[in-house]
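Many introductory courses stop at the sequence. We go one step further.
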Amino acid sequence: MAVHLQRELEKLKKRILSLGALVEERVHLATQAIETRDLDLSHRIINSDHEVDEMEVEVEEECLKLLALHQPVAIDLRFIVAIIKINNELERIGDQAVNVAQRIINIAQRDPIDFYFDYASMAEKAEAMLRKSLDALVTLDLDIAFNVLTLDDEVDDIQNEAYDKIKAAISQRPERVGYLINLLLISRHLERLADHSTNIAEEVIYLIEGEIIRHGKY
């Protein structure tokens, strides 16, 4: 029974990493769409969201089946609980990529204005956080997981910068508030994406240490 459970846990880990790879691709496409304002790419992200949703449901069902059939304890139970939570965070990251794509479509349908915010650094850090959080899961590396938490502070700083600059632009160009609000929402979606990656890293820390560090407990 124990050998069979370990085999099933390895299969579960491969499935969550496959979902992670799919979500990583969506996030990368979303950051490309921010830079290029590519409508076709944005529609592609939105239209393929069902793939992430379907895989997320499959992983959750597998976790519940393992809990019911094997009644795992200790580290095995902790692993399955962590996977259930990571699975949910990955689905939400996929949703944030869709949200970015929707903002790009909205912006592309409006006349441009002489205001620009460079999202490159924010997008790069958000992508790195997702990649590192999954790397930490693969290697069970505490240092990588804690590095994700550090990067989250940097993304928050850029979000605050975007808010201040776009708020100032709205006061100067109130007639273009719709366009500018969409720009602000892009930064908000990237910041939320980073938050979900942080949650994944925290679950990896829980998996390794057996300690819940949410709500500033680190």
